[in-house]
UniProtKB/TrEMBL annotation:
Protein name from the UniProt record: Isochorismate synthase MenF
Record Gene3D superfamilies: Anthranilate synthase (3.60.120.10)
InterPro entries: ADC_synthase (IPR005801), Anth_synth_I-like (IPR019999), Chorismate_C (IPR015890)
Keywords, comma-separated and alphabetical: Isomerase
Organism in which the protein naturally occurs: Neolewinella maritima
Encoding gene (name): menF
GO MF assignments: isochorismate synthase activity
């Protein structure tokens, strides 16, 4: 398996394995295309501040600021969205894919800096890579506890947090089917690296607060047992699970090809993962709810899952509805 990876990725995986075995804390970033793997030691984030992150059980990075931050989106032209959507639809109709996550970068005006966004918003996971991006993600990719129990909580299905939209989300056959597809895909992914795969909670609703009103998402929890010596293989285990099913689709190889053709640009760290190992256990998130800085411009990256039953206008609306700052 190892020879399939680039030198940079194998090197990254070996360094992850070594640090995990040595009980040395580390933080990492992996981009969607797996071209720019990064691994940071404690002094690189604490003293040199090459990256900042705030994870549920972990590090804080810079403290919350009080500067006002806000954003104004300039939605991408519907024509551009439809072209990509139609390309994805033809792949879905041919049966190359049965679920494809289609995303775009929407230009935004940002009042405040990436740092100010990082310091002001609340989210389960926050990551700030200076000059590059800030992410405020609600989505866990996987966690591994000290005993080697691996868990994942895919989020699939998003709606505004109103009673009507909630019940539509819960009852919509398309949403039900998409969610089942993702849970299946992740069960399969986990079974590649672990044993005793089980779903402990299925399709529960979770509210997400934002500056401009709430969103709800449907999530599930899936878990399994890694081999006892899991730390020795941690880097390669992570690579085998990527890209994350919830932000790619199924089946993965053909779907990734469809995504590349439809989106026409790399996702970079958006839809990649970030992880924090505290010396014993690992927590990772999917890098969504993502503001990117390119040259002197800012873009909000967002998207959602498309199936053969999807309709372009509601998918376009979902992509735009996600362009918000959490409270
Ligand atoms: C890629 C994104 O969304 C993904 C797709 C979701 C969906 O289809 O409901 C929800 C969360 C993400 O896993 C994003 O929000 O940017």
């Amino acid at each position: 398996m190892r020879e399939l990876y680039s030198v940079a990725l194998s090197d990254w995986a070996e360094r992850v394995n070594a640090a995990a075995v040595a009980a040395q804390p580390f933080f990492f970033l992996l981009d969607f295309e797996l071209l720019e793997p990064r691994l940071y030691t404690e002094s690189e984030w604490r003293e040199q501040q090459l990256v900042s992150f705030a994870f549920p059980g972990g590090e804080g990075g810079v403290r919350a600021q009080r500067d006002a931050v806000s954003l104004t989106a300039h939605p991408i032209p519907t024509r551009r969205y439809r072209e990509a959507f139609d390309l994805v639809q033809s792949g879905l109709q041919r049966g190359d894919s049965f679920l494809t996550n289609l995303t775009f970068a929407t230009p935004i005006d940002l009042q405040g800096s990436l740092e100010a966004v990082y310091g002001n918003v609340s989210a389960k996971y926050r990551v700030w890579l200076p000059e590059r991006f800030v992410a405020f993600s609600p989505e866990t990719f996987i966690t591994i506890d000290a005993a080697g129990f691996i868990r994942t909580s895919p989020m699939k299905g998003t709606a505004l947090d109103t009673p009507a939209a909630r019940s539509e989300l819960v009852n919509d056959p398309k949403e039900v089917a998409e969610h089942a597809t993702i849970v299946d895909l992740l069960r399969n992914d986990l079974s590649q690296v672990a044993r005793g795969v089980r779903v402990s909670a299925y399709r529960y609703l979770r509210a997400l607060e934002t500056h401009e009103g709430g969103l709800v998402q449907t999530s599930s929890d899936i878990g399994a047992n890694l081999p006892e010596e899991w730390r020795e293989q941690l880097g390669y285990t992570l690579l085998r699970l990527l890209p994350a099913g919830s932000v790619s689709g199924a089946p993965k190889p053909a779907t990734l090809d469809l995504i590349r053709r439809a989106e026409g640009e790399q996702r970079g760290y958006y839809c990649g993962i970030a992880g924090y190992y505290d010396g014993r256990a690992l927590d990772t998130c999917v890098l969504i709810r993502f503001i990117e800085q390119r040259d002197q411009a800012y873009y909000f990256r967002s998207g959602g899952g498309i199936t053969a039953r999807s309709n372009w206008a509601s998918e376009y609306a979902e992509l735009n509805a996600k362009i918000r700052l959490p409270a």
